[in-house]
Amino acid sequence: MSGGLFTGSCLCGGVCYQLEGDGVLIIGHCHCSLCRKASGAAFASFLMVLIADFAWTKGEQLMHKYESSEGIFRCHCGCCGSPLPLQDPHLSLMAVPAGSLNTDIPSLMHVETFTGDALSFLRTEQGSGLVSLLEEAPHLAFLSFPQRESKAYWLGFLDKVNTRRAQLGLDVFPADFLEQIAQRGDIG
Ligand SMILES: [Zn+2]
Ligand SMILES: [Zn+2]
Questions:
Q1: Considering every ligand atom, which ligand is closest to the CA of 84?
Q2: Burial class of residue 164 (count of CB atoms within 10 Å of its CB; 0-12, 13-18, 19+)
Q3: What's the gap in Å between 99 CA and the centre of ligand 2?
Q4: Tens of pLDDT, residues 136-176
Q5: Which domains, from first to last, does the chain contain?
Q6: What is the pLDDT of residues 104-138, one digit of tens each?
Q7: How far away, in angstroms, is 112 Cα from ligand 2 center?
């Protein structure tokens, strides 16, 4: 993703945000039941950024929050109901709904999670339909995990988190913290 600020908003425009383009770590596509319910979509797509790379620019007071897992508050606009970026305090991350961006979605590392829970019409013999779709787009780097608690997922992802934290001059998470997070269950 090229650098510079990217902006997004809810449908009514009452809540707006911006993020640093260079700070986008991955684009995650989640099939878990929590993400499906919260988004209303067959699966939910998020851009993952550090909180340090994100800022609300308008209407934060309009947001309603719902604690879907311990410490994880899913947000939506109290006026139009659109899903809005949610904060993961455990990792100091924001998960930004890809559909709320005002700009096009960049080509980046794509990670698909909870494919084991994917709706049947999205499944193929290889996995989910999204897997097939993205495998036919060779310019996209793509990884797929049946469950997000896969240790390989967390270790790979947290490596990206730490690289970005180092770029911004923030303390990196220590190795034992990565192990602890890697053992963590679903945080959806
Ligand atoms: Zn709104
Ligand atoms: Zn999910």
A1: 1
A2: buried
A3: 15
A4: 666 666 676 666 556 677 777 888 899 999 999 999 988 77
A5: 5-147 (2.170.150.70)
A6: 887 788 888 888 888 888 877 666 667 666 666 66
A7: 10
